[in-house]
Automatic annotation (TrEMBL):
One of its GO terms (molecular function) is ABC-type oligopeptide transporter activity. It comes from the Bacteria. InterPro entries: AAA+_ATPase, ABC1_TM_dom, ABC1_TM_sf, ABC_transporter-like_ATP-bd, P-loop_NTPase, Type_1_exporter. This is ATP-binding cassette, subfamily C. The lineage of its organism: Bacteria, Pseudomonadati, Pseudomonadota, Alphaproteobacteria, Rhodobacterales. The chain crosses the membrane at residues 20-40, 52-72, 130-150, 156-175, 253-278. Its main location: membrane. It comes from Sulfitobacter pontiacus. Pfam families: ABC_tran.
Length: 583
């Protein structure tokens, strides 16, 4: 296992760029002194002497310095852009993987946990003016020092003003400390409702739910907007105060400076220079107050990503194991949440050999679907162990075990890509012959070829309007079969393929074909289906095995006519359930 935080490692890898960023920011801030020094030289040297040559010489130097300022500012912008891109490249794939395996342990909305969204918040922060102000903040003391050199009174006034501006910024953070997360959750809730309403548009229209749902959505919208207003009201008020205060402070500096000139303590040019320097001290603070929400969101995203990658260290790929054959072993496997028995498993043990075909029967909440998920590694057992070819399923390298597993869930969707990509599982080494063979086995090849672009037809998420529901389901089945997997698990396939004509014949044909190739096939169902294509039966009730053995031994040879009645009379077996052998 990796023992380091890949987010922290990605940040450390950018330390060179971050160091260069602050060096360039330092040069930019030094060059910002140009205007103040130029102002002093004009009032104290050029005007008293009346020398145009001196003026033009100074002006040429100023132009050159501002050219360097523009160059360094461009370099800083490009450094920030590259820093954000490199962080995205280093963390994007892992954040996407984390989003796919989004844990079910937290009760907060999935969208609120999305690492990709948090990475996007950091990217937006790095490209915002507020972050440039963050880079400028360490160099504010340079301008303060210059003010104190001009006169201590002026430096003290600006220092007090900066302290007040920082207090305003801290107040803004305090006032919005809880509002940011609540507002974000409200926005995500509204977005989730909009997304799922679109997904369910057909039944909503059929039951004429649009008006009532729109009223409910409007309530969510009003709540989201209310929290949005609460989030922005304090920072907006404080930003307005900060800008007004800065203008008043600069006018106060001009007033105090004029008094000091009258008293002969400073020159006239120093008045304008002090005003410019005061603006440079307060400008970064003003920008941070104005962009505080972005800074706060970025900082929150940074903390969440650091914590996420500290708690979810990705497993290092193990050494390559022998080619998977499809031997599956459940040993005293239990799964479920304490105090909730539904959909769980209790002390389930059985073995399947390559070429076996298992039909898992049971009613609602029997645990069939969770058994299917455990078999393919989507879920992890609470106790016990699931082994694939005598190796714990979690210890297989993903690149090796992935092609060895074919999984057809009870609900099928397609990703927004071509049909070829969907069937090939986006694997670059999948050949066209493999994709076509899988599509033919799922009986969807001819339907795909009838499309204008064939296998290169692009579908939207969920399938798109160019495909029927039955075709989407068959493409999902082809995706499960494309790599000639050693294990094929179909969770309630007659439900998954409910829109397909001859669904039971397709499932039976797939089961026979894959078993003939030596693959292990597991099919879950509420009612006996394709029993003739499978050689073993496992009956679940309330998460426990009622019976497990050879199909002929349990049902006799005159199946499937007597199967349904036979299932109801099977005795419940205890923890000593015998393991069937042979096929």
């Amino acid at each position: 296992m990796q023992t380091h935080n890949i987010y922290a490692a990605a940040l450390r890898s950018q330390l060179g760029g971050i160091g260069l960023l602050f060096v360039v920011s330092g040069l930019i801030n030094i060059l910002l002194l140009t205007g103040s020094i130029y102002m002093i030289q004009i009032y104290d040297r050029v005007l008293p002497s009346g020398s145009v040559v001196t003026l033009m010489g100074l002006f040429g130097i100023v132009l050159l310095l501002y050219c360097f300022f523009g160059l360094f500012d461009l370099i800083r912008q490009r450094l920030l852009a590259r820093l954000s891109v490199r962080l995205d490249l280093a963390l994007g794939a892992e954040c996407f993987a984390a989003w796919i395996r989004n844990d079910e342990k937290n009760n907060v909305p999935a969208s609120a946990q999305e690492p990709l969204q948090q990475l996007g918040d950091i990217r937006r922060l790095l490209s915002s003016p507020a972050f440039i102000s963050v880079c400028d903040m360490p160099f504010v003391p340079i301008f303060l020092l210059a003010l104190f050199i001009i006169h201590p009174w002026l430096g003290a006034m600006v220092l007090g003003g900066a302290a007040l501006a920082c207090a305003v910024m801290a107040t803004g953070r305090y006032l919005t400390r809880n509002t940011i997360s609540i507002s974000a959750n409200q926005e995500h809730t509204l977005a989730d409702m909009s997304y799922h309403s679109r997904r369910l548009a057909e039944p909503l229209r059929a039951m004429r739910m649009q008006d009532d749902l729109a009223t409910y959505w409007r309530g969510l919208q009003r709540s989201s907007l209310a929290w949005h207003q609460r989030l922005h009201a304090p920072p907006d008020a404080l930003a307005s105060f900060s800008k007004s205060f800065r203008l008043m402070l600069q006018s106060s500096i001009l007033t105090v400076g004029a008094i000091l000139v009258i008293q002969g303590q400073i020159s006239a040019g120093m008045i304008m220079a002090a005003s410019i320097l005061a603006g440079r001290v307060l400008a970064p603070i003003d920008q941070m107050i104005s962009g505080w929400r972005g800074v706060a969101c970025g900082w929150s995203a940074h903390r969440h990503l650091h914590r996420h990658f500290s708690q979810n260290i990705p497993a290092r790929e193990g050494v390559a194991l022998p080619e998977p054959k499809g031997r599956i072993s459940f040993t005293a496997v239990s799964h479920g949440i304490e105090g909730r028995a539904e959909n769980g498993l209790k002390d389930v043990s059985f073995d399947l050999s390559p070429g076996d075909g298992l039909c898992v029967l049971g009613g609602p909440n029997a645990g069939k679907s969770i058994l299917a998920k455990l078999a393919v590694g989507v879920a992890a057992p609470t106790t016990g162990e699931v082994r694939f070819d005598a190796v714990n399923l979690v210890r297989w390298p993903s690149a090796q075990i992935g092609p060895a597993i074919g999984y057809l869930p009870d609900t099928i969707d397609l990703l927004p890509a071509t049909i070829f990509d969907n069937i090939s599982r986006f694997r670059p080494d999948t050949t066209g012959a493999q994709v076509i063979a899988a599509a033919k086995l799922a009986r969807v090849h001819h339907a795909i070829m009838a499309l204008p672009d064939g296998y290169m037809s692009v579908v939207s998420g969920g399938g798109g309007s160019s495909l029927t529901q039955g075709q989407i389901q068959q493409i999902g089945l082809a995706r499960a079969l494309v790599c000639n997997p050693a294990l094929v698990v179909m969770d309630d396939p007659l439900r998954s393929l409910f829109s397909c004509p001859d669904a039971e014949q397709i499932v039976a044909e797939v089961a026979r074909h894959m078993r003939d190739r030596g693959s292990t096939v597991v099919i879950t169902a509420r009612q006996p289906c394709v029993i003739s294509a499978l050689n073993k039966v496992l009956v679940l009730s309330e998460g426990r095995i009622r019976q497990f053995g050879l199909t002929n031994d349990i049902f006799g040879r005159a199946f499937p006519t007597r199967v349904a009645a036979k299932v109801q009379t099977l005795p419940i077996l205890g923890n000593g359930t015998p393991r069937a052998s042979g096929g």
